[in-house]
């Protein structure tokens, strides 16, 4: 279970999350929606321990460990993985080299290069990417959509158990969205990860059937519901004040 308790986070001396609480049962998919700038990406980055984001108070329990006390390397070893909203380019190292190093870090056995390359080829095919894609420097010169697919490709190799999906759908054309959403759904059906999905759009949720939908505003979750809440937001936006009298957080 992922259990985030009383999390207050600041960035550049600005408090972004304030007493944020969220519980997700293993294997569930929860969506977080909210206007631009409310702290959705901040939540993802702080869970991965990005040094720009300071945990002022709070605990993040996963696998009986408080992620707030772990280093990014230790967090990655706990099988936590963030698919970034804006994946960065890294010169001088290819995606394949980086993944091979990451796998050998976590395994006592030698990596079978033949099987590894075959797996990469299969993933590339399923994501409609050319085979040489993985041998290019990480995200260097890649389009927005290709970068998103690269995040997904890495997920398939690393096989995380807790996944933070930060706007995987932004920058994808209609066909790419279909490929990415189907691939992610297939991953969920195979590995049953615990997932936080951040999105502004309903289309992704047509494929990935979430268990719960939450609205983040003023630093915390102000409403929780099912898919109908996401549909309501798509139609009415966030400007209409939510009736907070009947709020059941993380219901
Ligand atoms: N590295 C940073 N330096 C300065 N301010 C930051 C930084 N990261 C986040 N912020 C600020 O924190 C607030 C929350 O940003 P965040 O990226 O988490 O929003 P978001 O909910 O993901 O928005 P969007 O829907 O546009 O992606 C914003 O006001 C943003 O400007
Ligand atoms: Mg964001």
Q: Which term fits the overall shape?
A: globular
Count of alpha and pi helical runs: 8
Number of strands: 12
The spatial strand order of the largest sheet comes to 6-9-10-3-11-12
Task: Identify the CATH class of the largest domain.
Answer: Alpha Beta
Structural class: alpha/beta
Helix content: 25-40%
According to CATH, the homologous superfamily of the largest domain is P-loop containing nucleotide triphosphate hydrolases
Overall pLDDT level: 93
Poorly predicted spans: 244-251
Write out key terms for the chains shown.
four-stranded antiparallel β-sheet; six-stranded mixed β-sheet; 8 helices; binds adenosine-5'-triphosphate; 251 residues; Rossmann fold; 12 strands; 28% strand; 2 domains; alpha/beta
Describe this protein's structure:
Helix 6 links the parallel strand 9 and strand 10 (194-198). This protein has helices at residues 40-47, 72-77, 95-106, 113-126, 144-158, 174-191, 203-207, 227-236, and strands at residues 2-11, 14-24, 29-33, 53-62, 65-66, 80-83, 90-94, 137-138, 162-166, 194-198, 212-217, 220-225. It has two domains: 1-38 and 50-78 and 211-251, 3-Layer(aba) Sandwich (Rossmann fold), CATH 3.40.50; 87-159 and 172-191, 3-Layer(aba) Sandwich (Rossmann fold). The strands form three sheets. The protein has a six-stranded mixed sheet, sandwiched between helices. Strands 2-1-4-5 form a four-stranded antiparallel sheet. Helix content is 35%, strand content 28%. It has 251 residues and is an alpha/beta fold. Residues 244-251 have low confidence and may be disordered. Helix 3 runs parallel beside helix 5 and helix 5 packs parallel to helix 6. The protein is built from eight helices and twelve strands. It binds adenosine-5'-triphosphate (ATP) and magnesium ion. The site of adenosine-5'-triphosphate has 13 residues, from helix 1.
């Amino acid at each position: 279970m992922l259990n985030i308790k009383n999390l207050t986070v600041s960035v550049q001396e600005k408090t972004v999350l304030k007493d944020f609480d969220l519980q997700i049962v293993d294997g569930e998919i929860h969506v977080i929606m909210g206007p631009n700038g409310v702290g959705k990406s901040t939540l993802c980055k702080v869970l991965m321990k990005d040094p720009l984001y300071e945990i002022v108070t709070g605990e993040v329990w996963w696998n009986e460990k408080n992620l707030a006390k772990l280093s990014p390397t230790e967090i990655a070893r706990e099988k936590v993985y963030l698919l970034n909203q804006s994946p960065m380019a890294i010169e001088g190292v290819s995606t394949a080299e980086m993944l091979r190093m990451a796998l050998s870090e976590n395994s006592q056995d030698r990596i079978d290069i033949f099987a590894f390359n075959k797996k990469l080829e299969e993933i590339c095919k399923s994501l409609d990417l050319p085979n040489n894609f993985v041998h290019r420097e990480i995200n260097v010169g890649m389009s927005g959509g290709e970068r998103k697919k690269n995040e997904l490709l890495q997920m398939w190799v690393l096989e995380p158990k807790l996944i933070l999906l930060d706007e995987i759908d932004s920058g994808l054309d209609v066909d790419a969205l279909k490929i990415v959403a189907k691939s992610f759904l297939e991953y969920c059906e195979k590995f049953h990860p615990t997932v936080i999905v951040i999105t502004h759009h309903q289309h992704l949720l047509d494929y990935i059937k979430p268990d719960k939908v939450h609205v983040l505003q003023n630093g915390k979750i102000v409403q929780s519901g099912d898919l109908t809440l996401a549909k309501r937001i798509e139609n009415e936006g966030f400007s209409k004040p939510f009736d907070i009298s009947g709020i059941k957080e993380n219901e």
